[in-house]
Amino acid sequence: MQAGRFRHFAAVDWSGAAGERQAGIAVALCGPEGDAPRLIRAGHRWSRADVLAWLVDALPEDTLVGLDLGISLPFADSGAFFPAWDASPPDARTLWAMIDTICATDPHLGATAFVDHPEASRYFRRHGGREGERFGANGQPGGRGRFRVTEHAQQLVGCKPYSNFNLVGAAQVGKSSLTGMRVLHRLGGTLPVWPIDPLPATGSAIVEIYTSLAAIEAGRSSGRTKMRTRADLNAALAAFDSPPFHARVPLSDHTTDALLTATWLRRAATREELWAPNALTDKIARTEGWTFGAI
């Protein structure tokens, strides 16, 4: 493992909301030498297509990119993403392709067509009290929904994950995850996605991140992971031995999430144990993926 070889560290706070340009998307980058993180295109209202183009055309060499979304859906709990659906994909990359194909006419890399699909909708909790009969654990309705193995690991370090099959509520990540999977499919393998792909010996790579993990490691409580002031951000950055963020730009919880997590990635990438979680098997890697930092 040569996890310490990366020269740049990027974090993308993502959004699955409807529409082209999203206030909830922010991109931050830092180098390896202890410099303060910076925002990419500060003040720009990003679209999902913009982020895809940046990853393809403008990403610095040897960058570890963290995407704040779920890179797959639960599989291990039921032996399938969609048990009882004969078209259920066998692995994450096939899942991405399926979602992108079904959503081909959705604008702005949206995923409405997939969650409204007559078969797929049986597994999601949607707005308006629409809950598929197979949303819950063991193929039953109700409850918090199904979770990946990595989300159980997130809970052990104090995070409060939501099921990627849940599309309701301010903290849900289902829409972000599904739209993100369309982006991952469109990258076409040009950027490896760990652990679905092996970590390459050279070049850039993508990992799934959960920004709350970075905030908790910086000393924030699990109920106070969001930062909206420069003072809170700089106190958290100091926990990772980073200089303060001085750029005079408006801050939101999305930009602070990206700035702190890019800085956390710089330190976390050198920790060999984070690349080898105890519960991560080859099959889980191919199907569910993993959240970097959850062990």
TrEMBL record:
Top-level taxon in the UniProt lineage: Bacteria
Protein name: DUF429 domain-containing protein
Organism (species): Caenibius tardaugens NBRC 16725
